[in-house]
Each structure stands twice: as C-alpha cells, then as structure tokens.
Amino acid sequence: MYTISLDSVCMMRGDTEIISEINHVFSPGSVTVLLGFSGSGKSTLLKLAAGLLTPTSGVVRVNEKSFFQLKRGEEEAFRKNSGFIFQDAALWANQTVFENVAFPLKVHFPHIFGEELSGKVLETMAEVGYRDKPERRPSQISGGEQKMIGIARAIVSHPKLLFIDMPLLNLDSASEARVLELLKKLKIEGTSMIISSGSSHLVSLLADHLLIIDRGKIVESGPFNVVKRSNHPVTKGVLASVLEHVSSYDDDILNLLEDV
Question: Where would I find the ABC transporter domain in this sequence (predicted)?
Fold first, then answer.
C-alpha cells in the first residue's frame, strides 16, 4: 500500500501559480475525490500526486520518501503497482488498442506473454465494455471507446493505487454506468483511488474523502460525511455545481443537498 503526501507543493506555469502551497496526505485503502470548479487545478494536483509532474517547489512523497529521490527499482515498483487514467485517454496513436492495453503487462510483467497475455488483455477490454476489433488504431474508434481503452490499460495489471482524471467525461449513459460499477468493484477489492471528478453519482457511490480545491488551494478536506455538510461558501458552491444537472437522487445525494 502507498501513502502519497504533498508538503508545501507549488506549481507554476509561466508566471501563473496553478497549485499553491498544498499540504495533504492521501491515505492508502481509501477513495479520495477531488472537487472544484473548472480550472481550479484538480488535474494538475492529480498529476503531481502521481509523479507525472515535477512541482516548482515543495515535495511529493511516496511512503515518506521524496518521489524524485526514489531509486530506479523503487520507482519501477511504484509504477508497477499504480495506474493513471487520463482525461483524454492519452493512447499511443501508432499502436493498436490491443497493444495499448498490453503495454503495462509487457513492461512490468515480462513473464506474461502469448496466450496468457492475450487473454488478460481481451478480458479487461471486455470488462470495460469495448466491443470493437482489438487491432483497430485509436484514430479508428470513438472518443468514448478511447476512454474505455485508457481505463483498460490502467487496470489490466490490477494496480493497488489508481489516479483517475475525470473518468466519466464524454461517456454515454451506458458506458458511464459500466465504469461506475467497475470502480465500485475495485473499491470493494481494496484498490486505493485518487479521483478528479465532477460527477455527483461518482461522489455518492465511491468517495470516502472529499478534497475541495479552489484556485490551486485546498479549501476543505475530510471525510465525505463531514465535508458534505460544510458551511464554507466555496464548498457549498462546488457541491451545488456538482449537483446542478442531477435529476434523480439517492440518499447520499439528498444528504449533499443539505445546506447547499
């Protein structure tokens, strides 16, 4: 299990501060959902926590060790046991969708090959709902299908920790429901997840902790049941925005409406 901590982390883009003095610990074995208005810095914070971006200042730690001081073997072990689901899928255009999904297995599990590798890849593609031909290129499938392949690539090796950026964006209702059920299954199996999302259904179904972000700063963080009752004006505004297009509510969503 991995504990990810950010100590005084800042991120500049030119003269603009995207992330400002963030201190936070993401506990293992739980699901944290990052919420905030568009442009608040959710995706940048997620990539910093995953070690995909280097902070301008501050330190990102994996189990108390600075991420960028990890030895090669330690970083390889972290990559082997974690996955990242990108908002735009980020598939390799010059590879088939099968090859995209197979990539983590080939890199981190070289002993898996042939029929075993093929079986794992095709099983995972079916699990996320991809029904098209595995030899197609990303340019030959829809944006929603690309997203499904991106999810399959991240979970094919059964990582212990998932970083997930807007997993339901650009998905139809059937695909969205399938992804939610898949993420729920992973949570039950004990997979730690850090998710950037604006989906009320995802928050209600998965969130153990909420992290409210505004203009690159953490406004509020804590257990779902505590933060959803917050009177902080930014938190209330973010939660109201998340709920804006919801037409039917379960009990947790109705609770979110309290004091908003």
Answer: 4-240
Q: Which pLDDT band, with edges at 50, 70 and 90, does 209 fall under? A: very high
C-beta of residue 105 within 8 angstroms of C-beta of residue 121: yes
Residue 142 is predicted with a pLDDT of 92
- Which residue range(s) make up the domain with 51? 1-81+161-224
Q: Which amino acid is at 156?
A: V
Q: Which residues contact 145 (CB under 8 A, 6 or more apart)?
A: 97, 130, 132
Closest CA relative to residue 44, chosen from 28, 60, 30: 60
214 and 183 in contact (C-beta within 8 Å)? no
- CATH number for 190: 3.40.50.300
Asked if residue 47 and residue 118 are part of one domain, the reply reads no
Provide the Cα torsion 77, 83, 89, 95; round to 10°. 40
What does the angle CA 63 – CA 66 – CA 69 come to, to the nearest 5 degrees? 120
Element (H, E) at 124: helix 114-128
CB 210 within 8 A of CB 227: yes
Reference 2, options 57, 79, 85, 105; nearest CA is: 79
pTM for the model stands at 0.90
